[in-house]
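Hey, I was hoping to borrow your eyes for a little while. No rush at all, and the record is pasted right below.
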Amino acid sequence: MTTPHQQPQAQPPGGGPAAEAPSTAQAATQTAQPLSYTKPPQQAPAQPPAQPPAQPPTQPPGADHAAQYPPPGGAPAGAYGGGYSSPIPITRTHLGHAIASEWTKIRSVRSTMWTLSIMFVLVVGIGGLSAVGRAGEDNISMPMLSSGLFGLMLGQICIITLGVLVVTSEYGTGMIRTTLTACPQRGRVLLAKSLIFFLLAFVMTTVACTLTALIHHSVLSGPVDRLDYGYTSYEESVKAGEFVVQDGEWLGATVGAGLYVALLGLLSLAVGALLRHSAGAITTMMGVVLMPLVIALFMVGEAMETLREKMLEFSPLNGLASLYLIPMQDDQDASGWPLLGLLALVTAGALMAAYAMLTKRDV
């Protein structure tokens, strides 16, 4: 018989001998634990989450802005899809936006600064050296400001190159796609490029030519009013040994030369828009400027005399030289303004062709 605090010996399986009973000391130290049941604490029933107080429906984001700035063109308020509305006011684009964009592009490109700087150095530097070289000569048969032509003949190449790059650089980099996406009116893009480039080229070239003319006048002559000495014409003053400025020479050597070179650059821009390739457009413009004069120099014989004279007369270099009152033919009118008007007509025709091609092509 066992006591309540003792448990029976466990029998090994298979009827083997019983395991060795614990020692008396171990049995004495073992204390019996009373069997008892502890009821777990009851948890409070889970309460459903409190519902937030109902709020009145609010307007979608940007609804107040959409009401303040409706879509352009009288379109309904949801014509462009729901959701976000830009905080930037929606305004109709115009030519001023395109002009601002083109001005930002042309002034932020390094090639513009370098090209115009080289042009300025060539025109003023070579013109100044020519004036110093003529200071000790007795020959005063050429007009006083005519030496400024030498530097401008090289400086115009920089303006021609810049005019081509204004358009073809965007085709080369793929930027033209972004430009036409931002301004789908392609005629507006071409007009903005033409205005910005023409004004920039005209101002820079005119400033360089004016500075060159001032250097010539200060080195080669005294006051401009030396014609008041009683000479009735420039030829009589030359015979008398006076070195003076002819009538209209200042205007042609400054404003006229600036207009002529700027128009050549604008013609280059149109050729660049037509060809869409920098090297091809620059090569084409070099041929337009130089080839008529070069070909005319190699035309010999009476049969080709008439063609030779026409090529010399209407060559771009002769038009520029005529503004300095040094035409390449003796029987030609010394004024270069008619040739300047002819160049303006050719440039306008090239720009219209560029506009037609720009609107016809995909890009």
